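assembly run, all chains below
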Amino acid sequence: MTNCLLRRVLQSLVVVFGVTVITFTLLHLLPGNPVRAILGGKTTAQAVRQLTLEYGFNRPLPIQYFIWLGNPLHGNLGFSFKLNESVAALLIQRIPKTLFLTGSALTLAVVLAIPAGMWQALRRNKPDDYVGTGLIFIFYSMPTFWLGLLLIVVFSEGLSWFPFEAPQDQGGLFSQLNAMVLPIATLTLVTLALFTRFMRSAMREQRIQDYVRTARAKGVAKLSILLRHILRNALLPLITLVGLSIPGVLSGSLVTETVFNYPGMGLLFFQAAVSNDFPVLLGVTLIVALATVAGNLLADVMYAVVDPRIRYVS
Amino acid sequence: MEGVTPAGLDRVGDIGAFPTDGSPPPEGGEVVASGSAGRLVLRAFLENRLAIVGLSLILFMLLFSFVGPLIYRTEQVFNDPGLANHAPSAAHLLGTNPVGYDVLGRLMLGGQTSLEIGLAAAFIAVTLGVIWGAAAGLAGGAVDAVMMRTVDALLAIPFLFLLIVLGAIFTTSILELIVVIGLVAWLVPARLVRGETLGLRVREYVQAVTVMGGGRRRILFRHIIPNSVGVIVVNATFQVADAILYVATLSYLGLGVPPPATNWGHQLSNGLSYIFDGYWWLIYPAGIAIVVTVVAFNFVGDALRDALEVRLQQR
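ok done. output:
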């Protein structure tokens, strides 16, 4: 177990190393050179020279990489010249907001998907399975920004139940929960399909296993088989899926934050892309990638803890 | 628990174990479908009504976008500002947009771009993924480890974030957009195909090729890829759906295809600026076109996956 865990952690570290190399490569893909990208078009030769020396852009590439790598390791993710603030400080303000949005939506999606997927598995290829599948696919296939705006039109323009904008910077994270309803609903609806479809097929897979036949043969009640045998086994791989869904949820959060003007990491990233604020772009990319790797690792560890069979398999 | 196949074959976990010569012995009065594996998949696929719906919708959208302009002729080059934002009428079935183009004609034009980008990006992604994944799986050892850790590292960056960075770096034309989406989306098929390869390369018939002196390339193109075709096709359909959505999202974020080119996402996000003005014809046609097309591709992919599972599970 410990051995396997250790290997998994090492693997994640290798992936993190890969992520930093990719981010560094992106930095060098920037048009012109990174100094120009940071300073913009109107600048003096003196400023260019100064920044080149400061960032070490005149050194060989591998050395530049290690110099650059040293920065995030010391908590320095760069400086946004556009917002005149360090990227780390910006992220500290923005990350809790994104965590709140994605965390709530992810939890809601999983909680709703379990009964929905069960129902669909039991009613496979019946009219209500078709209707349910159809509806879930429509939410999944809708551009997130359109879904968000439709919710705004119906629930804030039409019914005036919720405000059309997410809470802004003033006040705490939970100060205006009313304004968070629509953003969370948007992100939940687009994420729902992933988990529902998975539950549907996992339930089907478990239903035809031998242990189900055994349970039936010894006369266990149908409901009991469903809840205590099939469901429990179908739920296990859901842990892995939650880990794997993190990048998708973060992408969805980016669009949702943009639609509702919610000042999270996604909106920061989008605004940085529009204004060519490359230090912010790369800083957020790095953090988001680290979150994904950490999420996957955590899911794997959880899975091994919950399901003792895993220890012997790997 | 009715309808559950009594496990007549105790372990049908792999494709190769499926008997192609005839039907396996039916048990307990169960009628087991017979025929080739391919035909079984086709039958299971056609039994799924959502799959038929999906296929018909895709066909309709292709005809609408590519044949439609030949029947419903509209002016899509020179605009007439005097015609801005007219409601649907006999002359303009879906009204006109803010610069005076006919919306229905615009929709057909946008459909061409959306479908072209979707199909081409999916093609690039799947081709790249298949080659990368199969090569890694076949090579094994350190090469495999390096290749797959690269995939893992790229997968760690959420697609949309990577797309936006690349979109911000490259000025987008349709071709660049296709390449950028393809270059971001190849990771998942690479992983899937590598998994398939690892399972296939230890099979007797693959080993037999090696024994008979066949090279790796022969194994790759004659055995590994044809045998993973199911997984590849299922993934490709999802890729098309995803690519169309990516294009729409990028258009909304202002990083999509620059004018004069247009696509459904571009039309939808432009229309959404008039969401409170009551110009519904600027929003719903384009939005519905996206949803219908993406749903259709997802239905087909889902049904194909179900059908392949049927082949695996014999039910």
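Residues 87-122 of chain A form the longest helix (36 residues).

The domain at 93-306 of chain A is CATH 1.10.3720.10 (MetI-like fold).

not gonna interpret more than that til we talk
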